[in-house]
Known about the structure:
The chain is 55% helix and 12% strand. With 213 residues, the protein is of the alpha/beta class. The protein has one domain: P-loop containing nucleotide triphosphate hydrolases (Rossmann fold, 3-Layer(aba) Sandwich), CATH 3.40.50.
Amino acid sequence: MATFIAVEGIDGAGKRTLVEGLRRQWETGGVRVATVAFPRYGESIHADLTAEALRGGHGDLSQSAYAMALLFALDRRDCARRLRELIDDYDVVIADRYAASNAAYTAARLADNSVREAVAATEWVRALEFDRFGLPVPDHQLFLGVPVALAAQRAVSRAAGDASRDRDRYERDSTLQERVDEAYRGLAAAQWVSPWRILSGAPEPDLAQDLLR
Length: 213
């Protein structure tokens, strides 16, 4: 049975870099590692619909925080069986984004309405993805708490160097990214769903070892 780890953070925080760094460390020591990234663009119809909506497609779909969250959740639901198989077959499974991403972005989009509605959204995501859809619960959730301005700069540079990673509506909205960061920190403080650890983005030599203790 694998240790299941979810890596979270705003766009440009360095999630992919952390996932690959951990994978290399563990595999060097003979640990069997599987990785998965959400949304699964190019693999999931639900993920592709969200990408199209965030680039102006499908009418007013992207204007609904709950509609977008449902599509992101359905992407993970379609992958639930595969996730459980990976957890059964490997020593470590790492997800680049998971359900907490949905909770943070949905709460951030509803923050203008009221704090109560934003908090209710995180509970709705939890109930939908873990209770109703039966998704595996992470053993650890890692939040890359890098400065929002630095993450934005990285996202811009990444898009400039890779046309396939052009920024979407969420990524271009600096105010939203600030609110998402705040929402993530609230989830971490509440230890939402399972244990959280906030990382600064600086190298942590003992991280890989600590996570498997």
